[in-house]
UniProtKB/TrEMBL annotation:
Span of the signal peptide: none
InterPro entries tied to this protein: EFG_II, EFG_III, EFG_III/V, EFG_IV, EFG_V-like, Ribosomal_Su5_D2-typ_SF, Ribsml_uS5_D2-typ_fold_subgr, Transl_elong_EFG/EF2_IV
Lineage, broadest ranks: unclassified sequences, metagenomes, ecological metagenomes
Stated name of the protein: Translation elongation factor EFG/EF2 domain-containing protein
Ranges where the Translation elongation factor EFG/EF2 domain occurs: 95-213
Length: 252
């Protein structure tokens, strides 16, 4: 913890110890609802007592990630969370935070119609999806003219598109690099509601995304590998088997 215990009349300051960075990680999952409430407190206390432990939430996979100096180190931390802090945990290999995107422009139309005896729900949406550059996540635009869809309903369509964006079209992963353009539609003077256009926008987005040849995007990490010259061939073979791209080599 880099704290120093000493006599008040003779204060001693010792140079701070630089802690090594974690080398492996596990996803930790609370067993019961009572464990959920105590999880954050337990992780904070574990990392306060052992600075080589780190934890962070991973929004993309909705997991709590505990990192440390090895599998034995993490196993001890998980057991300590149970014995000392009363939190029962299970562990798993962290999920890979994949993303999805589209590879071509597509169009789709969707009509949401629901009648329940009284006032029903009605919304018709025409949507076009286009690819965006890699550094842009999502963009929404409207080309509706002539009042075929009212302003509040266009906002509802955008909300539906964002909902579909989070669940993906191919494997349930969030989508990125997509522009959605609503270019036409139809509303009913009595049955049209914002929720109807939200549903229509969501389902139309899914339909258009499937027609736009969706693909999975893998995360890319930049690493530096130091290895003795006699092991260079083996390491290069291992990297190639993992589809790594070698950007350069330096020899000391």
């Amino acid at each position: 913890t880099n704290g120093t215990l000493c006599d008040q009349g003779h204060k001693v300051s010792i140079k701070k110890i630089d802690q090594p960075s974690p080398i492996t990680s596990l996803a930790v999952h609370p067993v019961s609802q009572s464990d959920v409430a105590k999880l954050t407190t337990a992780l904070n206390r574990l990392t306060a007592e052992d600075p080589t432990l780190r934890w962070n939430p991973e929004p993309a996979t909705r997991e709590m990630i505990l990192s440390g100096m090895g599998t034995a180190h993490l196993d001890i931390a998980v057991k300590k969370a149970q014995s000392k802090f009363g939190v029962n945990l299970t562990t798993s290999v962290p999920k890979v935070p994949f993303r999805e995107t589209i590879t071509k422009t597509s169009k789709a139309e969707y009509t949401h119609k629901k009648q329940t005896g009284g006032a029903g729900q009605y919304a018709r949406v025409f949507l076009r999806l286009e690819s965006l550059p890699d550094d842009e996540q999502f963009e929404f635009d409207s080309e509706v003219f002539g009042g075929s869809i009212s302003g509040p309903y266009i906002t509802a369509v955008q909300k539906g598109c964002r909902q579909a964006l989070e669940s993906g079209a191919l494997a349930g992963y969030p989508m990125t690099g997509v522009k959605a353009v609503v270019y036409d539609g139809k509303e009913h003077p009595v049955d049209s509601k914002e929720i109807a256009f939200q549903i229509a926008g969501r389902e139309c987005f899914k339909k258009a995304a499937l027609a736009a040849d969706p693909v999975l995007l893998e995360p890319v990490y930049e690493i530096t590998v130091s290895v003795p010259a006699e092991n260079m061939g083996d390491i290069m073979g291992d990297l190639n088997s993992r589809r790594a791209r070698v950007l350069g080599m330096d020899q000391d």
